[in-house]
Amino acid sequence: MVKPLAFKGEKTKRKKRKATPTIEDGLEEKTIRESAGDTHEDDSWVTADSLCDINGPVVIVLPSRKPTCVACDAAGEVFTSELENMIESDPTTAEPHDVRQVWIASRIAGSDNICFKGHHQRYLSFDNNDSFSARNEAISLEETFVCIASTDTPGTFNIQTPREGFILVSDDGKDIRGDAKTISFNTTVRIRVQARFKPKLKANKELKAKEKISKKQLEDAVGRKLENDEVRTLKKARIEGDYHEKVLDVRVKGKHDKYS
Question: Which residues in the chain come in under a pLDDT of 50?
């Protein structure tokens, strides 16, 4: 299920729990959380480093003197919007403060093309008049863009329009066009994405989740008390993917030790 976007400074509503989990046998509350698994989604914003990172909610940060981004209103008018949520005016730390600044990026099946859907469920498009809008509900050629990774500055991109021009912003950040014929500083954008959609961070989170298992949980799985080296072996097996085989090995070893 897609979660609603949350912006910095907003208070989150917490659901009341019907029952409080009890702690038995001196088991700390931390262990209970680990056994239940970390279900919190990371809604922080990070910079896209590669093309595969451009997925889900994104903010297209423009290279204007005062940091701005591509935005649209409910009527489909596309404009530049000044960014406010930053650390010391650094665009690499930018986060949206307005839902109009957020687009949902998705890749067109069977191609390298990307489309951007606005908050009002309409797609960003670049028409025959060389102007941007966001009024179409369906995807056609005018709603497809190509993101080209910059070779000069890591973590930046140039977005090519269907007319083979590049998205360009004026120095003052007031005007956005799509007819730039060559790549320049003013066509080089940063794309901020939500961390939970970034493949590398997502893989790291899954790896950490596999590491989160207590000694008591491992002993429950094996059926006896474990030595420290056995605990290390089983935790390593969870990461490497042969956990169940190692559990059986430890069980067999325990039976041999019992009758030797």
Answer: 21-39, 259-260
CB atoms within 10 A of CB 138: 7
pLDDT at 31: 36
Helices 215-222, 29-36: axis angle to 10 degrees equals 60
E-strand ranges in the chain read: 45-47, 56-62, 68-72, 78-82, 85-87, 90-95, 103-107, 114-117, 123-126, 132-136, 146-149, 157-160, 166-169, 176-180, 188-194
pLDDT confidence of residue 35 = 37
3-state helix, strand, coil in the chain (%, to 5): 30, 30, 45
- According to the model, what pLDDT value does residue 172 have? 84
Q: At what angle do helices 243-259 and 215-222 cross, to 10 degrees?
A: 70
> Measured between alpha carbons, how far is 148 from 51 in angstroms, rounded to an integer?
8
Q: pLDDT at position 213, please?
A: 77
pTM: 0.65
Residues belonging to the chain: 260
Exposure string of 26-59, with b = 16+ CB inside 10 Å and e = fewer, is eeeeebeebeeeeeeeebebbbbeebebbbbbbb
Q: How far apart, in Å, are the Cα atoms of 17 and each of 29, 37, 162? A: 16, 17, 51
Cα 142 from Cα 116, distance rounded (Å): 11
Alpha-carbon span 18 to 184, nearest angstrom? 58
